[in-house]
Each structure stands twice: as structure tokens, then as C-alpha cells.
Write a structure and sequence with these properties.
The chain is an alpha+beta fold. 40% of the residues lie in helices and 12% in strands. A two-stranded parallel sheet has the order 1-2.
């Protein structure tokens, strides 16, 4: 699973991004799902808060069951 924040003004669907990754990455490195976010959760230092992304992924998994 990969989380992506698009550059302002650009448009891409998760399918577009998966197709692009397929051209660049080995099969075992390709994400099976890409989630496009308006903004990645970041601390005041600018670092990505990874546990919030993990929580969001976990919540999505629970919602699918």
C-alpha cells in the first residue's frame, strides 16, 4: 500500500499511479493499492507521521470486512 499526495493542479487516479509504478518497479516492489490524500499528515518539523498513515490503512482494512 502506498499513500500519495499529488502536486497542486495535477490529476492522477490510483490506477494511473499503479500503471506508472509497473513501468518503473520490479513486481515485488509495486504497491497493490495506492491511496491519494489531500495532504500527508506531517509534524511541525515537516516529517511525515507514519503511525497516522498506518492507522488510516488499518481503518480501511476494517471497513472492508
Amino acid at each position: 500500500m502506498a499513500f500519495v499526495q499529488l502536486v497542486p493542479g495535477s490529476t492522477a487516479t490510483p490506477a494511473d499511479l499503479i500503471a506508472h509504478a509497473a513501468q518503473l518497479l520490479a513486481p515485488y516492489k509495486r504497491p497493490s493499492e495506492i491511496i491519494v490524500l489531500d495532504a500527508l499528515p506531517a509534524a511541525s518539523t515537516g516529517k511525515i507521521i507514519k503511525h497516522r498513515l498506518a492507522d488510516a490503512a488499518h481503518d480501511r482494512t476494517i471497513a472492508r470486512v
